[in-house]
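Researcher: Structure prediction, please.
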Amino acid sequence: MVGQTKDVGWNIGVSKTLPYALEHLWRFISSPEGTAIWLGAGADLQPEKGSRYTTADGTTGEVRSYHENDRVRLTWRPADWDHDTTVQVALSTKGANTTLRFHQEWLADAEERARQRDHWRAVLDRVIAALPQPTQ
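Model: Predicted structure follows.
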């Protein structure tokens, strides 16, 4: 079955390689403005394992790992869901470009996976649209 594994259940990943330095992209996605786009408005994401967050729409979770200029992994549970999922936001370099990747694990079923694929694609588009141009 596509999108389901023994280790993490139903999962989805979306990514895009962008013409930005890794540090520039990290600075944005870890800023309050960037975090509001991918995690949700009102989230105060602290860069320490075990710190909890709640967004304005009631999504809750806990930071599982936070590695500056690399990745953040956290639990993610919207207010109307009955289960936690795991979201990872990761960066990797490809020459002068950086790939931004959103990956979500432990989704309930194929339908939830399809909805979340659309969600993360839209998030990726919003992040790209909001990215400030690098200063020279």
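Model: The CA atoms of residues 28 and 34 lie 5 Å apart.
Researcher: Thanks, that helps.
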